[in-house]
Model the fold of this input.
Amino acid sequence: MTSNALSGAAAIVGIGATEFSKASGRTEIRLALEAALAALADAGIAPEEVDGISTYTMDNNPEADVHRLLGGRALRFFSRIDYGGGAACAPVMQAAMAVASGAAEVVLCYRAMNERSWYRFGQAGGVAPSALYKSTHYSWYSPAGLLTPASQVAIAARRYMIDFGATSEDFGRVSVAARDFAATNPAAFFYGKPITLEDHQTSRMIADPLRLLDCCQESDGAVALIVTSLDRARQLGGRPAVIRAAAQGSGPEQHLMTSYYRDSISELPEMKLVADQMYAMSGLAPADIQTAIIYDHFTPYVLPQLEACGFCARGEAREFIRSGAHARGGRLPINPHGGQLGEAYVHGMNGIAEAVRQIRGTSVNQQPGVEHVLVTAGAGVPTSGLILGRD
Done:
């Protein structure tokens, strides 16, 4: 398979989601099924046609059970991607590869979680690493108090501030813009609840320099996507989101949230690797992207992601943010759904759904003239990305 053989071979034809809450009152498998059935209905595809499934290693819903409860007949392909939020776009890549190779014809991608009411990723000891190598890895950081993702990200955030002159207010501008979009998105948990920069600056400190409003939500909910061939997508009669590029990447001296041994910890080489692959695969450039879904688990990591994806030069994201380029009415609005800061934290799958809506022209915060959307996955870990486009 050549480097561009995947481009345009498959498309996302269905999206579905539950409501986003802090207490769903349902099992995670029920959430997964609700979202999957909604995505299939949106695509106009019968459940029994699903013959492939791709999800995250962190998802608690077995593929065989989801397939059986949907009413599936034969499951020919199934895969899971590791690294939490870094996986976000990779199940769609796996789905596209399965479709392009003939391994499957209709692939379901899903993420379902009761991450607020059942367990909390953001708390120390909330979800302890079970593998011995992971436990050994984190044993080097736990004695120093680096017990949570926020505390681990704080180290890199402070280095970025030192290297490039970014400030807490710059991080706050990311949060303010996300909440502004969420405030006009009825599906967002923070619908009708915008914030000001002052609100950000007075929110309590979590792990210096990260404040409460620098951190994504803890959410209950599920999102599902349906991927099939572009030929089949055209027969369905809707407006498909064509997968123009998909990539994964792990950079030099990569660790899980703690890549502190690199020559520089104020950049994200794994994200640049993903972006470079996507531009090469699609034949597109940063100037061809009208809006982007940038993984916003923590606001400080939004800035080096913008740089890694070529939307501004290294060290210049602070000026990009200060100019409002990322916000409503800016030259590259990011996360028009409100992101994980404002809509919900569903490990990035909800961001892919928003990218599909932007391509379709159906988003509640629709951006003008959208032809291509770039989507990133979790930063600070091995990661992935997508470029979706109009047919």
User: Anything to note?
Assistant: Residues 10-118+220-389 form a domain with the Peroxisomal Thiolase; Chain A, domain 1 fold (CATH 3.40.47.10). Residues 81 and 383 are 10 Å apart (CA to CA). Residues 28-43 form the longest helix (16 residues). The radius of gyration is 19 Å.
